[in-house]
Write a structure and sequence with these properties.
8 helices; globular; identical protein binding; alpha/beta; 33% helix
Length: 261
């Protein structure tokens, strides 16, 4: 995989936003897979600036959601549908009918998971999927020991993930749902380009395991090693435990091969 080391989160956001803009110039109706959390915010801010300046047209793009809490009303401020509406759809001017996401309020959750898999397939698949990474190496909500062939499904969150996410719920872990719908690792790997952004020293162990460790279910993000076009963008702090950091700096610098290997 490509590993690009950047000075800080803002530089990573700008680099990835320009990759997304380049994709949209080549494929105006591209399907962009988006993630939530604080890490991708610099990407969305940089892409919004490009759209508002006229540097890129996003009017024909479609947006696909990576995961969703189970049981939170769709209009709950911390449902991922609400978060993405605030942070992605509204700033970018994306129409509601161009958005795809799993239904976390469905009575038949397995049915909702299957329906989302069908929707992704009918859309032609995801062209570029943004990913974050948990401190334990999870991507989406595929916790450690998830099947590397898994599809969109319901998952039970680990206690550590609920602790990590409590900051979005006024620090109250009791408000954090226990279950989520997430694209499976097998589903994620079907995207044509995977782009993972990680920042901060707290992600250094997970990044090292993802890039340089064995492909193993205990670190779900290590499955990116199996993908033909995966790009990992990290700041210096997140790159601190990479044994090949100097090689990555020399090889990729700030010019990753966004269009394919």
């Amino acid at each position: 995989m490509e590993v690009v080391i950047v000075p800080d989160a803002a530089a990573g956001g700008e680099l990835i936003a320009e990759a997304m803009a380049g994709l949209l110039r080549r494929t105006p109706d591209a399907v962009l897979g988006v993630a939530t959390g604080s890490t991708p915010l610099p990407i969305y801010q940089a892409l919004t600036a490009k759209v508002r300046s006229g540097a890129v047209d996003i009017s024909r793009a479609r947006i696909a959601q990576l995961d969703e809490y189970v049981g939170l009303p769709a209009d709950h401020p911390e449902s991922y549908r609400s978060v993405l509406r605030r942070e992605v759809l509204e700033p970018l001017g994306i129409a509601p009918d161009a958005f795809m996401g799993p239904d976390g309020t469905a009575e038949d959750v397995p049915g909702a998971c299957a329906a989302y898999e069908r929707a992704l397939a009918e859309a032609g698949g995801v062209d570029l999927q943004l990913l974050g990474i948990g401190t334990d190496g999870h991507i989406g909500f595929n916790e450690p020991c998830s099947s590397l062939a898994s599809r969109t499904r319901i998952k039970t969150l680990t206690e550590q993930t609920r602790i990590d996410n409590a900051r979005f719920f006024d620090g109250d872990i009791a408000q954090v749902p226990h279950h989520v719908i997430t694209q499976g690792i097998g589903t994620i790997l079907e995207a044509r380009h995977l782009v993972l952004l990680a920042t901060g020293e707290g992600k250094a162990d997970a990044v090292a395991a993802t890039v340089e460790g064995p492909v193993a279910a205990v670190c779900p993000a290590s499955a990116l090693q199996l993908h033909p076009h995966a790009t990992v963008v990290v700041d210096e702090a997140a790159a601190a435990k990479l044994k090949l950091a100097d090689y990555f700096r020399h090889t990729y610098a700030d010019k990753p091969d966004w269009q394919g290997i």
